[in-house]
Amino acid sequence: MNYRNRMVSLVLLDSVIVMAAIVVASWVVYPVMGVWSNTTVLVSAIALLIFHHLYAVGFKLYHKVWSYASVNELKAIVYSVTLAVVSTGLIQFIINDFSVYRRALVVTWLLHVTFLGGSRFAWRMFRDRYINKGKDLKRTLIVGAGDAGAMIARQLTNGTSESDLHPVAFVDDDAFKQRMQIFDIPVLGTTQHIGAVVENKQIEHIIIAIPSLRNGQLTDIIARCNETEAKLQILPKIEDIATGKVSVKALRNVDVEDVLGREPVQLDIDAISKYVENNTVMVTGAGGSIGSEICRQLMQFKPSRILLVGHGEFSIYSIDMELRQVFADQETEIIPIIGDVQDRERIFDIVNQYNPCIIYHAAAHKHVPLMEHNPHEAIKNNVMGTRNVAEAADTFGTETFVLVSTDKAVNPANVMGATKRLAEMVVQDLAAKSSTKFVAVRFGNVLGSRGSVIPLFKKQIAKGGPVTVTHPDMTRYFMTIPEASRLVIQAGTLAKGGEIFVLDMGEPVKIVDLAKNLIKLSGYTTDDIPIEFAGIRPGEKMYEELLGDDEVLPGEVYSKIYVGRTKKVDAQSVFDLIEVHDDLTNETLKERLMSIVYHESDVTSNIS
């Protein structure tokens, strides 16, 4: 029904209600019509009709969406009816020798409110009971009977939601809410009872509606939900939801990040602001997974200029456009720069021209199997590229240089890890003789990066499987891209020069468990999407190594950040390898790489 037809229908309906209310009231109170004459009834009815429409317009009764009616809509009805009846009483007082038929007006008020409210809610009740009942709705369990859960339940039960979900039960850990009902939906237990409730109530869908959950708690609840066959969705975290805007449309599928169980990083905002605000910062590899996220995080601290350096045209264009859109109101000058870290002259020109205060060097080749087949390229990008950027920082007086490294530089078993260790040695050598504060930050795998297993698993699942895992016992340490980027920025504020910061990666995760979780979260089982084991690839380790007590300085220097014990490095051997690497075969180059890394353990740093 369009707006005009809807307005005409409501005006006609209300006119009938007004006439019916006053006629019925007059008959109930004065059945003989002796005291209340026909003229008085007629004048009162006309007056009430006019006043009703005036106040209905004033309180916007004809503009409300009654499918969402609540206490506020009921108040509007009561106010408009009360004022209309009082105004009608004044008319009676004037035309009836200062006499008002109070009992008739009270009954009129009662009938008016009842008829008017009933007409507004009758269609909704009919639709919910008969029309929506015939839909093929999925029986839904809501985890969390708080404000968010109640709002989701209300939207799903008021008949206006386009969702095919029908809430039949809550679970909540609040003892006070047990055996209570919200919108006629019972609270049937705590989160410990999720499995039993799903089975007893034939639940097909679960919604986790507790935005304030801590990661550890969320992990436990997701694990219980995953033990059932029900599909699982979740509301975004509280910091991602505008107050009062919890909505069915905000529901999202559970991501692998949700089951990591890692608490969010709390940054030292003041320290980072002093370090970044109103300064020029430069990020190499700015179009990559880590580099682009470092740029996003840095923009929040309002640098005067940010240099987006990378050799990939489209990736630099993408992050440039994103930052300009998201931070449109910010005065930071965003400068996209196409440049390869292997091009020494180009890198020196960039640093000389813009004189950055801080450089985050994230450009690197990181794919382990690919680098096994291309060791010369790994040397060029990871070692020579780092040397170019680091020496440019030293030459032009950059205040701080932060190398984004990897835990694969620890006792490396592959070309990628070995070249990243050599990059660390280059930086440590410069730190010993430069006024620039050179530091490196190590961390493990990040979820969602271009070379990580998650995008690969998602593609395999989308194609119907199988999902390929190298080995059933292979484990890795994971953190999210935003967390890794924040910790890199935070480590930069702690730099004194020469440190290798090591990020706490939490507990190790079996890759096969990660695959199973992703299959389950995608709505399938391992029967639908099988897992196949393809064997360990060249250069891969079965397990990543942890920090040992004798290998790091005691205690955290900041939450989740440790400083590794380092010794004097033999950087000359690195420079010698750079000079001759073009003349070496792949196998000879690999041997030379490993010999430098492992030569005399009292000279090089073996930090897990």
From TrEMBL:
Polysaccharide biosynthesis protein CapD-like domain location: 281-563
A Pfam family recorded for this sequence: Polysacc_synt_2
Gene3D superfamilies, per the entry: NAD(P)-binding Rossmann-like Domain (3.40.50.720)
Keyword Transmembrane helix part of the UniProt annotation: yes
Keywords of the record: Membrane, Transmembrane, Transmembrane helix
Signal peptide start and end residues: none
Transmembrane listed as a keyword: yes
InterPro entries, per the entry: NAD(P)-bd_dom_sf, Polysac_CapD-like, Polysaccharide_Synthase-Rel, SAM-dependent_MTases_sf
Record family assignment: Belongs to the polysaccharide synthase family.
Family matches, as PANTHER family: POLYSACCHARIDE BIOSYNTHESIS PROTEIN EPSC-RELATED, UDP-N-ACETYLGLUCOSAMINE 4,6-DEHYDRATASE
Name this polypeptide is given: NDP-sugar epimerase, includes UDP-GlcNAc-inverting 4,6-dehydratase FlaA1 and capsular polysaccharide biosynthesis protein EpsC
Organism field: Pelagirhabdus alkalitolerans
